[in-house]
Design brief:
Chain lengths: 210, 210
DNA sequence: CCTACCGATCGGTAGG
DNA sequence: CCTACCGATCGGTAGG
């Protein structure tokens, strides 16, 4: 009697479909990132996720579809974060040095703001469903490739040591920034931007805000 | 009829107890690191581990005791690796610069030689049994603390930027080196020592072999 | 959004 | 070192 599902709920109001259902789903995704970060993908049960958001385990399936859906959504968010970081770095300036400084700041910020999401992304890399795994690997390779290009630009400008392979330098920079997910303490003295600035100084690039 | 187990097999030869049983156990530990690195601790089953070493799943328990035993052994190995790295760095020279260079080389080497063991160590950090978890956290804190001290020494010698907190610098260095577990390719052009030397140059420390 | 429930699989044991 | 097996728990469905 109905068409192929117009928009979900009420045909009367199709302009603002962000309803309770969407909020609940978003909440479930956040909690799932917590649970998977703590117990791993296989160890984190739908029962525990449901319990933390105040649902029975079967009700969980009214919002999510399957457990794979969760890790898929998490992977997609990190994917989007990496793309966003690249865009911001590229738009910051024509100067590759400023681009790389901006990238370090924005990437560190992204990792630390969505710490548990990145944790799941990195730890459950092998648990991704086939389709999303392929996409994720491709996008991450593109990300590293872009950073490598920025490093090359900085080397040609004489601002990074030329006797280090650009690829290794790029991995080193991303390693410094990524590794913050393990030691960063939100209650500690250092904040994400301060940490990123420290990374820049350590490799001989001036602060971004000068 | 027997005492509380003299040495396992034959009372006649107690001098060389490294027998088939020990070799099998070692093999199981290696395979377990592979399986856990691929599928996580909860996702890696005793059945799969047993199958890869050519045993039935119940026979697995003749060598191991429990699944927790496996992750306990893995954690202890990383623990020992970190201690060994510290000792080598400390013995290398009285000069903190050479100590830090040595530490970077030895740590990178350890991570890449036992890549899957470190992978499990870092990814299953929250899956450790209570007792080993406490020990691991203590030893890792001590490791970071020692590296921070070396950084401080290098700063006082004017070889590392003094306007970066020693703790953040230490984490950055350990981050660069640790992150190699994600991107290192044994078939690729770069080898562990070359990568470590690149890290040293990137942060303004000369090569260790000069 | 819940109660009731299913098939599958897991870690581990019995008993030889 | 294996066959047979157990209790527990998991992801997901039925049916309302």
């Amino acid at each position: 009697m109905e068409g192929p599902r117009t928009n979900g709920t009420d045909p009367m109001r199709t302009d603002d479909p962000v309803t309770d259902h969407d909020r609940r789903r978003r909440q479930i995704l956040d909690v799932a990132a917590d649970v998977f970060a703590e117990r791993g993908f296989q160890g984190g049960t739908t029962k525990e996720i449901a319990k933390r958001v105040g649902l029975s385990q079967p009700s969980f399936y009214h919002y999510v579809g399957s457990k794979d859906d969760l890790v898929r959504a998490i992977a997609n968010q990190v994917d989007a974060d990496m793309k966003s970081v690249l865009e911001k770095a590229d738009a910051a300036s024509p100067d590759p040095v400023i681009k790389l400084q901006t990238l370090i700041v924005e990437f560190t910020r992204a990792v630390l703001v969505n710490r548990r999401t990145f944790t799941v992304y990195w730890h459950e890399y092998n648990s991704f469903p086939q389709d999303v795994a392929a996409e994720v690997r491709r996008d991450e390779a593109a990300f590293v490739h872009s950073v490598t290009d920025l490093v090359r630009g900085c080397q040609e400008a004489g601002r990074l040591p030329a006797d280090v392979t650009p690829g290794v330098t790029a991995r080193a920079i991303l390693g410094m920034a990524s590794w913050t997910y393990r030691w960063y303490n939100p209650e500690g003295p250092a904040d994400p931007d301060g940490i990123a600035a420290a990374f820049c100084r350590l490799i001989g690039l001036a602060d971004p805000e000068r």
